[in-house]
């Protein structure tokens, strides 16, 4: 047993020539050993590598499929948006054309109503002028009549004496009496 423990203890003292390790000298390595190692790696690693590549391929295909679906949806949304834009532009053009025609129609209506209002105002003005002229004429006639009446009364009062006055009153009474007899 002592031998066995000595062998473990002295493991650090083994010479390098008899130990297992990698020889980094390419000319000294055996190509067969390398081919065996590479073959083992390919044989055992092929399944794992194939699975990894298949999983990666499926993820890429799924991503492409999803991207195509999203692209198709985006294209549909873009076409709908373009159709809505064309519709809105058409409606805007119609509103613009209708708005311009409505504005022109309202403008013409406003001009017509303004002309009618001006015509009515002109008629009212003429009627007011005629009314004022007639009123002024009536006032002048009344004044002239009053002035004439006062002048006549003044002339009569200055020309009439008591006797002439009594004769005029009795003549008028006689005329009223005659008229009364005729009507009865």
TrEMBL record:
Topology within the bilayer: Single-pass membrane protein
Chain segments annotated as coiled-coil in the UniProt record: 71-98
Recorded GO CC terms: chloroplast thylakoid membrane; proton-transporting ATP synthase complex
Domain of life the protein comes from: Eukaryota
InterPro entries: ATP_synth_b/b'su_bac/chlpt
Pfam families (alphabetical): ATP-synt_B
Principal localisation: membrane
Other comments on record: In plastids the F-type ATPase is also known as CF(1)CF(0).
Subunit structure, as described in the record: F-type ATPases have 2 components, F(1) - the catalytic core - and F(0) - the membrane proton channel. F(1) has five subunits: alpha(3), beta(3), gamma(1), delta(1), epsilon(1). F(0) has four main subunits: a(1), b(1), b'(1) and c(10-14). The alpha and beta chains form an alternating ring which encloses part of the gamma chain. F(1) is attached to F(0) by a central stalk formed by the gamma and epsilon chains, while a peripheral stalk is formed by the delta, b and b' chains.
PANTHER family per record: ATP SYNTHASE SUBUNIT B, CHLOROPLASTIC
Similarity comment text for this entry: Belongs to the ATPase B chain family.
HAMAP family: ATP_synth_b_bprime
UniProt name for this protein: ATP synthase subunit b, chloroplastic
Originating organism: Echinacanthus attenuatus
């Amino acid at each position: 047993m002592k031998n066995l423990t000595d062998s473990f203890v002295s493991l650090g003292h083994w010479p390098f020539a008899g130990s297992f390790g990698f020889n980094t000298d390419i000319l000294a390595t055996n190509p067969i050993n390398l081919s065996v190692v590479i073959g083992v790696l390919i044989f055992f690693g092929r399944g794992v590598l194939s699975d990894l590549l298949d999983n990666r391929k499926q993820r890429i295909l799924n991503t492409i499929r999803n991207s195509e679906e999203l692209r198709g949806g985006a294209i549909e949304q873009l076409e709908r948006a373009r159709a809505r834009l064309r519709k809105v532009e058409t409606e805007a053009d119609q509103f613009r054309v209708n708005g311009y025609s409505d504005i022109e129609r309202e403008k013409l209506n406003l001009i017509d109503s303004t002309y009618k209002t001006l015509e009515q105002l002109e008629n009212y003005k003429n009627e007011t002028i005629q009314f004022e002229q007639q009123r002024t004429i009536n006032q002048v006639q009344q004044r002239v009549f009053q002035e004439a009446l006062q002048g006549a009364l003044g002339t009569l009062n200055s020309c009439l004496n008591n006797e002439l006055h009594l004769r005029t009153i009795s003549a008028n009474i006689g005329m009223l009496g005659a008229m009364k007899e005729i009507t009865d």
